[in-house]
Structure formats: C-alpha cells, structure tokens
User: Fold tRNA-uridine aminocarboxypropyltransferase from Pseudomonas ekonensis.
Amino acid sequence: MIHAPNAVARLRDQREDEGIKPIQARGWRAPRCRDCRVIQSHCLCAWRPKVESRSGVCLIMTGKEVFKPSNTGWLIADVVRDNHAFIWSRTDTDERLLALLNDPQRQPYLVFPGEYVEPSRVTHTVTPDGGKRPLFILLDATWTEARKIFRKSPYFDRLPILSLLPDRLSRYRLRRSTRSEHLCTAEVAALCLELAGDSDAASALDAYFDVFSQHYLGAKQQREVNVSTPAHAELLPFIDAAPAVPA
Assistant:
C-alpha cells in the first residue's frame, strides 16, 4: 500500500538525496517498509488512519531523528494533513519555517513545559483568535536536544507557550526514558489536538500510536502480528477499508 509522503518522509528523502546516511542503530539492517518504517512482516500501512482536523502541526527535528524508525513524529504527520517538518539548525534557519510562523491565518503555539519560561507567555488552553487555525510547534528530539533548540531559536521568543498538564504517564516503550511522566511526541500531539477541539484526530492518533507500538515491539521481539487488540479496534473507524482480522 503506497501513501503520499508526509512532511517527515519528504524530509528523510531530502536528507538521503543530500548524501546523508541513516544512523546505524541497533536493528538497522532489518528490511523495513519504506512507508511506515516497521519491519516488513509487521507493516503498519493498512492501519494508517484518515481523519479531518482543523489544526496543523510543525515538527522541528534534529538531523538524526528523521531517520529513527522509532520516531513518533512520523505518526503525527500521517494523521494530521496540515503537517510540516524542518531540520533545526542554530545558524541556518529555513525561510519556509519563518513564513509558516508568520502566516496571518494561523495561531502558532510552541509546545514546551511552562516552568522554563516567564509566566506571561504560558497558556494551558487553546483559544481561538479571530478564526485563525492552531499550529502546534513540536520539538521532536530528545529532552536535552529540545532544551537546546528552545534556548537557541530566537524566532520562537514571541510565540505563546502551550504547557500541557497530562493526567497520565507515558505509554511510550520503544526507547528508554529516565522519567515515566515524559510523553513522547505523538502523545503530546494528541493532547494538543484534543485541546483544539480536534477530538477525532486526537483519538485516531492515540490509537495509531498504540497500534504502531504493538507492531514495532512485536517485530522486535519476533512475535506474530496480533490485530485483534483493543487498540486495533479503536483505530478501525478511522481507516478507509478494514484490514482482514484473523478469526
């Protein structure tokens, strides 16, 4: 099943065209689906949701993050049609990013913990501003890298900070984290979509993330694909044609 590439896929393709090679992380030699990045035996493509949303997302990524098969920013760009992705550089800012942030039809929010900025910039809600469409800026990187991006990107200084108050611990099990309350990028995006009133997109992304995690870990642990899980059932209403479910 072939899908139109999202912004993260296009960014990966651009990096490869520039001669930049993927990182050789553990398991990198395993043959993976080009579209979903999961090992081919556990391909996720048939479970890609199709849902409408008013909000947009913009992923600010590090050079290596775009190649990681465990990256969940890719899932967000699969779900939210209005998706954008840029490689961060301290010295060379993409003019397209600046144009996006200055688009008069959008209301950008930089998603980041509120305790790191002055209180006057912080909000916990998404408030419509003259009919502008929300644009969530997500720093798709490790926590150390995200703090660096935040500190060294002056074009973010004027943006309101959307500080989330999650009521659940992270379900992300694909990489180790020192703090269980740290959400992965897909979980953060789902919370943002819910705040913006894009409830269907939030639900679809939540279910898609769980299905991705199950397929990814199943392949890693050499377990057969099980599409009869609650997460798969939750995702079914958001896909065009229901994949065959074993009896």
